[in-house]
Model the fold of this input.
Amino acid sequence: MNLFELKIKSLSQEHLSLIVELDKTCFNGLWSKEAYQRELDSPNSEIQGLFSQKTGERLLGMGCFWSILEEAHITILAIDPQYHRQGMGAALLYSLLNTARDRNLERATLEVRASNQSAISLYEKFGFKTAGRRRRYYKDNGEDALILWLSGIHKPEFAQTLANWETFVNQGLNKSGWKREQYSATSSE
Done:
């Protein structure tokens, strides 16, 4: 089988319109263009995007986290619905956690809709545990959010966990006809 290569890279100002377009596709405009501009300008924010030559310059997915003290607070993990269940969410999550570890952050947290079982399942595969619940967190429908937590990402033994996840990520992508370019989230391309 011929595999199409996926590339994960840090997003910049030049990607702003693609980011906003993907947000509209995935979240009906959760964040404004100005909000994403603030994320791109902030030294405490990491936004990564997923691309493939197969689809041209189209942004297939994105993930974002804020560095808050020792924590990577994951604010967004979005994959274009056309590409769901192809391993791309796992690839982006892996990349975000790898970057957080590179920054010597100690833990990762996030909120997820209590009804979003596919996302919860993905996070649990990566070791996240439920730490709490935010009642009526989502403004659009008043749904609760689960607070998920992953600690110890700064510890030496986490390197082996990352190696195991890399294998898991690559196998998932390969089953769907994709291969991940060597880790490149910090590249400037």
